[in-house]
Amino acid sequence: MEEIKRDRYLKQLIDSQQNGFIKVITGIRRCGKSYLLNVF
Q1: Interatomic CA distance for residues 10 and 39, integer angstroms
Q2: Cβ(32)–Cβ(22) under 8 Å?
Q3: What's residue 23's pLDDT?
Q4: Which end of the chain is more exposed for a tag (fewer CB within 10 A), N or C?
């Protein structure tokens, strides 16, 4: 299976990691939400 790069989304998560807010990842089914969190 081909891996789709989500560098922009990953950078946003990393940059906002210490701001004290809860992050909510939303999207349609099978768009890579869980994969993004596993990489994070």
Answers
A1: 8
A2: no
A3: 87
A4: N
Length of the chain (residues):
40
């998560």: which residue's tokens? 13
The label of the residue with tokens 């990842």 reads: 25
1-35: pLDDT as tens digits:
677 778 888 898 889 888 989 989 899 998 888 98
Identify the band that residue 36 occupies on the pLDDT scale cut at 50, 70 and 90.
confident
Q: Identity (one letter) of the amino acid at 25?
A: I
Residues 22/29, Cβ–Cβ less than 8 Å: no
Listed residue (13, 16, 18, 19) closest to 33, CA to CA: 13
Distance CA 40, CA 32 (A): 12
